[in-house]
């Protein structure tokens, strides 16, 4: 059975996405990048652009599941609220497409990719490049691909007690 995972790293300025497919035991990069939204746009229009872009990606690639990072608290309350709104748009796009959604904490994600829960963004980016054999120039894209890879790794052990459940 083929599994195509769409990882999404929600952000109000740039939302990263990464699609990784499994062909047997081989993981294959399908597409990745980020949805950049101009700061000058009102927040509601930025959310609409993110939603429309994700809808398009889902329509084109027909992923099996969508994966996001678990909610964490930002230093700034306004940033946390905006991030939550972007995450809501991501979940809405998945819900309308009937895609199961999984989430992983930053600690689990870093352990799955680098083997160390306190890994830096640079370490994460370098390991994702190594695992997929690509060059990545954006941390949002690297984070989204890391989410996809993490889900592939965990889905192999889906019978484990601590295996992720769809949210």
The count of helical stretches stands at 5
What's the CATH class, please?
A: Alpha Beta
Computed over alpha carbons, the radius of gyration is 15 Å
Q: Distance between termini?
A: 22 Å
Give start-end ranges of low-pLDDT stretches.
none
| Helix share bin | 40-55%
Could you tell me the CATH topology label.
Answer: Nucleotidyltransferase, domain 5
Estimated share of beta-strand residues: 15-25%
Query: What is the H/E order?
Result: EEEHEHEHHH
Give, in spatial order, the strands making up the sheet with the most strands: 3-2-1-4-5
Q: Could you name the CATH homologous superfamily?
A: Ribonuclease H-like superfamily/Ribonuclease H
Q: Tell me the major beta sheet.
A: 5 strands, mixed
Q: What spatial form do the alpha-carbon principal axes imply?
A: globular
Write the layout of secondary structure elements.
Layout: E1 3-9, E2 14-23, E3 26-36, H1 43-61, E4 65-69, H2 77-96, E5 101-104, H3 106-113, H4 121-132, H5 139-155
Parallel strand pairs: 1-4, 4-5
Antiparallel strand pairs: 1-2, 2-3
Helix pairs in contact: 1-2, 3-5, 4-5
Structural description of this entry:
There is one protein chain. The protein is α/β, with parallel strands linked by helices and 167 residues long. The protein has a single domain (3-155), classed as Nucleotidyltransferase, domain 5 (2-Layer Sandwich). It contains five helices and five strands; from the N terminus they run βββαβαβααα. It has helices at 43-61, 77-96, 106-113, 121-132, 139-155; strands at residues 3-9, 14-23, 26-36, 65-69, 101-104. Strands 3-2-1-4-5 form a five-stranded mixed β-sheet, with helices on both faces. Strand 2 and strand 3 (26-36) form a beta hairpin. The chain is globular.
């Amino acid at each position: 059975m083929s599994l195509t995972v769409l990882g999404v790293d929600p952000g109000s300025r740039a939302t990263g996405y990464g699609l990784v497919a499994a062909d047997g035991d081989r993981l294959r990069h399908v597409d990745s990048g980020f949805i950049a939204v101009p700061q000058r746009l009102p927040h509601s229009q930025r959310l609409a652009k993110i939603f429309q872009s994700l809808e398009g990606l889902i329509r084109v690639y027909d992923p099996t599941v969508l994966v996001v990072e678990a909610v964490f608290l930002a230093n700034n309350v306004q940033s946390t609220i905006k991030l939550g709104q972007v995450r809501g748009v991501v979940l809405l796009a998945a819900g309308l497409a009937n895609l199961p959604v999984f989430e992983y904490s930053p600690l689990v994600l870093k352990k799955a990719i680098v083997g160390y829960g306190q890994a830096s963004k640079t370490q994460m980016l370098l390991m994702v490049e190594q695992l997929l054999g690509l060059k990545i120039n954006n941390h949002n894209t690297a984070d989204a691909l890391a989410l996809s890879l993490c889900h592939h790794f965990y889905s192999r052990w889906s019978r484990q007690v601590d295996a992720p459940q769809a949210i």
